[in-house]
Amino acid sequence: MATTAAAPTLRSWAAPAVPSLRGAGIADGRVSFRGAQWRVSSPMYVLGCRAVMSAENRDVSLASSELERGKQNEGEFSHSGGEQRRRVGRGSRLVGSGSAVPKTLISNEELSKFVETSDEWISVRTGIRNRRVLGEGDTVTTLSVEASRKALEMANVKPEEVDLLLLCTSTPDDLFGSAPQVQKLLGCHNALAFDLTAACSGFVLGLVTATRFIRGGGYKNVLVVGADALSRYVDWTDRGTCILFGDASGALLLQAATDDQDSLLGFDLRSDGNGQKHLHVKIDNEEDPSPSGAESNGSAFKKPGKASYECLQMNGKEVFRFAVRAVPQVVEGALQEAGLSSENIDWLLLHQANQRILDSVSDRLHIPAEKVISNLANYGNTSAASIPLALDEAVRSGKVKAGDVVATAGFGAGLTWGSAIVKWG
Ligand code: ACO
């Protein structure tokens, strides 16, 4: 893997006020985003590109021969994508969670053996003490299968009952996406599965995306998985970045529910490519050493070199400033959309990047420290996995209870950031 020595720019970058896509919701068959409306009453639902049914007829049964053809045998590729299950549901409930981390643990002491750092520096500046990194046999896919199995078990949902699997990751095991592999290994024969890439904001974006499939598409059971293995992309000789990251996967099962049971109370999602210079993993195109086409065979075509990725580059100070300014804004935006204020929050669950960011954002929002969920001491920054991993731990330990309101917020590369206010259970 190539590393770049490009010095990060120190020019200060201010998150601009950009139009937000917030609080989109359906009222009387109408999806409304600020200033624009799309009517969705009586939409047509397309099943596996073959069968079509109207919104009024969502429970219409497919002919049994169609269903037979759609069934998928284990290990076999089926063009139809399996039996399609579509049910009515406008709200979404969070009914299951699960998580998985690799066994390999790297403590701050261990890190200080190969970069010039100390447990004191890392824990004081970041709050991180340990992180897990992929070991033998671990992949983003295997961790995601384990996390998803636990979420399905908690939700009491069978793999074949899953309609959609969203894998939020920026580090898939296959450039083309790992979601279908997770789907295959889980046995979710009837699900559509695809990846969603938005770095550390990925899970919040995936969560909101999943609710739109339930609300507008009639999907019933949706698995949203956040998983990353940034250990593959950090420069392990760069003490400014390698101390921060860990690998993990976390999953939530969302289930269609009535409007009054809806768990998504409000959201505010944003992005701005102007900030990319502060945090990126860029593609690195090698020069093709072979003679150019014109020299070898007369063709003007010069083959592109084989691509790989550079190591993660970050201007930590700028990302820190961005996070403490932009995150409170989106949490407030999402709360406003939900008709709530910060006093109504039971838990603040931010992307677990740095304890000082968590402290600063909660101070700005006047949320007391005892309501802030934090587990980054054990896992570091696990990118898209950090929110579902922390939520799963909090649910399983009995901290987060049914009916609790959790304000989540992700932020990171892109730059992307966003908040979703959700109710557990
Ligand atoms: N150990 C010891 N010293 C170190 C280390 C280390 N691991 N890293 C840096 N230093 C030194 C620096 O060289 C510098 O020394 P100098 O003063 O002699 O030049 C000094 O410590 C201060 O370095 P800074 O980089 O200014 O330290 P800072 O207080 O900004 O902390 C940190 C760095 C922890 C990275 C912080 O900026 C941060 O957390 N930023 C936010 C990162 C983040 O949230 N990313 C989220 C998105 S991730 C994603 O989307 C994939």
UniProtKB/TrEMBL annotation:
Domain Beta-ketoacyl-[acyl-carrier-protein] synthase III N-terminal, residue spans: 194-273
Q: Where is the Beta-ketoacyl-[acyl-carrier-protein] synthase III C-terminal domain?
A: 335-424
Q: Which UniProt keywords apply?
A: Fatty acid biosynthesis, Fatty acid metabolism, Lipid biosynthesis, Lipid metabolism, Transferase
Query: What Enzyme Commission number(s) does the record list for this chain?
Result: 2.3.1.180
Q: Where is this region: Disordered?
A: 63-98, 283-302
Q: Which reaction does it catalyse?
A: malonyl-[ACP] + acetyl-CoA + H(+) = 3-oxobutanoyl-[ACP] + CO2 + CoA
UniProt KW tRNA-binding keyword: no
Write out the GO cellular component annotations: chloroplast
One of the GO BP terms on file: fatty acid biosynthetic process
Which InterPro entries does its entry note? ACP_syn_III_C (IPR013747), ACP_syn_III_N (IPR013751), FabH (IPR004655), Thiolase-like (IPR016039)
Q: Which CDD domains match?
A: KAS_III
Segments spanning the bilayer are none
Alphabetically, the GO molecular function entries are: 3-oxoacyl-[acyl-carrier-protein] synthase activity; beta-ketoacyl-acyl-carrier-protein synthase III activity
Q: In which pathway does it act?
A: Lipid metabolism; fatty acid biosynthesis
Here the segments flagged for biased composition (Basic and acidic residues) are 66-86
The entry's family comment says: Belongs to the thiolase-like superfamily. FabH family.
Q: What does this protein do?
A: Catalyzes the condensation reaction of fatty acid synthesis by the addition to an acyl acceptor of two carbons from malonyl-ACP. KAS III catalyzes the first condensation reaction which initiates fatty acid synthesis and may therefore play a role in governing the total rate of fatty acid production. Possesses both acetoacetyl-ACP synthase and acetyl transacylase activities.
Q: Which HAMAP family match?
A: FabH (MF_01815)
User: What name appears for this protein in its UniProt entry?
Assistant: beta-ketoacyl-[acyl-carrier-protein] synthase III
Q: Which organism is it from?
A: Ceratodon purpureus
The lineage is: Eukaryota, Viridiplantae, Streptophyta, Embryophyta, Bryophyta
